[in-house]
Amino acid sequence: MAPSLPPKPPHAHRAALAFLSLALLFFFLLYLSLTPSPLPSPPPSSRNAPADSLSDPHRLFLSLSPGANASIAGHLRALTLRPHLAGTPSAAHAASYVLVHLRSAGLRTLVADYYPLLSYPASASLALLRPDGALLRPLSLAEPADPEAAAVPPYHAYSPSGAAMAPGVYINYGREEDYRALDRLGVDVKGCVVIVRRGGGYRGAVVVRAAARGAVAVLMFKAADRGGVERGTVLLGGVGDPLTPGWAAPAADEGGGERLDADEEEVRRRFPKIPSMPVAEAVAMEILRTLGGPPMPPAWRDKLPLVEESGVGPGPTLINLTYQEDKKLAKIQNVFGVIRGSEEPDRYVILGNHRDAWTFGAVDPNSGTAALLDVARRYGSLLRSGWRPRRTIILCSWDAEEFGMIGSTEWVEQNLGKLTSKAVTYLNVDCAVQGDGFFAGATPQLDKLLLQVTKQIQDPDLEGRTVYDSWVASNEGISKIERLARADSDFSAFLHHAGVPSVDLYYGEAFAGYHTAFDSYKWMIEHGDPSFHRHVAIAELWGLLGLRLADDPVLPFDYLSYSSQLHEYAATLITLLDGGRSVHPLNASVDELTAAIREVLEEGKKLQVVETSEEFAALRIRAFNDRLMLAERGFLEAEGLRGKQRFKHMVYSPPEDSESKMLFFPGIADAISRAGKHAGKGTQLGVHHEIWRVARAIRRVAATLRGELI
Ligand SMILES: *[C@@H]1O[C@H](CO)[C@@H](O)[C@H](O)[C@H]1NC(C)=O
Ligand SMILES: *[C@@H]1O[C@H](CO)[C@@H](O)[C@H](O)[C@H]1NC(C)=O
To answer: 320 C-alpha to center of ligand 1: Å?
Structure first.
């Protein structure tokens, strides 16, 4: 099933090929002279909705769907034959597979190598001891679902090495409210090993909360794991290589570039202070069943195979745990396919997906990689039909995302100046398919385009409906577009650091095999997407979004959606704060933004009908587009969020407090939670200052849209 690599034409055949190409070109030109359409009319697509509003190349793109599912399946099979953890030899196979297929599609390819600090497990052990310290029984750290141990053993990347021999305490999800419940039970986790189930937010934040309360180690499990154990990173304090904060990691493991020392404070604060390990649910239950102490609150037992008498601990049994980390510089590779724009080669539309996986990666991320290669195949066909995008299109295959978005972040840091002045949009797909139902996230000026494009793509599961129809139906009439305040995929550096408008697309909400050995091709063909039509839908949505952004003369950005979203945020904030007085600067700036957007809309309408023969028409459109493109950058504050200076986006960076319910205005959200923890005048002023920072950012956006100085 694996697509074989295209054979290189032997030299002897070159002349014949050249002749054939000339003959084809001749017939093509003849054809063009006989038809009014500038491109061959695509055959009617069987699966896609009427596409009357699309240009010919865009219709041709959608007409290339028959057979796409089989070719995507072939790519996925080939990419998932073996695990390909970043920095390991099999990761290099996956990189060259993607490179070869981007090149054979007809794209110019590039590779960017880096040597960041990655983290692997060297050894680990776990045992349950009697209260007197004698061995009760050893506990397995292996993953039952991976009997051949083909994948890396379950571990937490960047967990420090350590050993602990201490009583265990069960802390439910390890959230603030769970610790408050423990306080009420009179249980202190100080000096204990905590056992926690997944669901309390980012795993690194769970470890930090446990360490802050004096726990000495963390064992993490996922309820109903069916034999898979969830690997993951616990890297703290943002994204990217811990040794090169703010600049790109060197392309060699020694010399040639600057790195911080691993024992500098700025590096050490990226790692938790206590070791943590993922364990199978069955192993966690073996421990929990031996715990005494106060009985567990009933909700803490929910969905777990435990009896009513179970206690939360501590002890009386002891947990003996050791973990040895192997932290080292390792080679990672970002692979790119580039199509140079014909009219605006210095404007970039960027499509990206990561390639590295914890295990086989059929869902995470190679469903997205297979879709990316299908987009490349279709773009290649368009190129051969004579199409050139107006703006440059860059397809990116990132490495080491699983460790902390490292490949994409290093590249953004390396190209920051170019991206902030020239990047139009970043379109991300991580797990293309992890189940059913379409999901999308976007910065709001892209909402309208996203809706338009979903109306043009056939629903992969229901004949005669579009993706839009099903999406709206599943959200009771409102198509719910998520916002991108999470730092859990490769859009983070683009949006939160460089202020590039971004989109994220996927099928399926969650998937039980996440980061386990169940994330295999077998799972995909049995459960995820047996006929690969959801993959095809993602490739069509992603590729068509890319085409519209690369080809539309006036950028399809609608900022009204942004200002109404900001109005909603301000209204929510009023309910959280002192009846709204302090929110006034924010409301005033949103009103100003709305006024600016209305002017821009009028101007845009006039530009739509500008005759290209008019003097300076192209330049006027270009200047207008630049204002639309650069407006998002106005949300960046140069000094960034307090304590996290590389998160600069004042609306959509992730808040410090991973339990925060406010997924916008992260600076304000953090100031509010600080004020909640330490009441006082100073903290109130902190909230006020953050409100002003956001208000100033919004005014900058308004001024950029108007093209005026302030
Ligand atoms: C705890 O585990 C370590 C590593 O397996 C072992 O060397 C040590 O003897 C154990 N301690 C006890 C008290 O069993
Ligand atoms: C592709 O789709 C067709 C039509 O639904 C189906 O018959 C075929 O099995 C699919 N191919 C793969 C590889 O899933």
So the answer is: 6
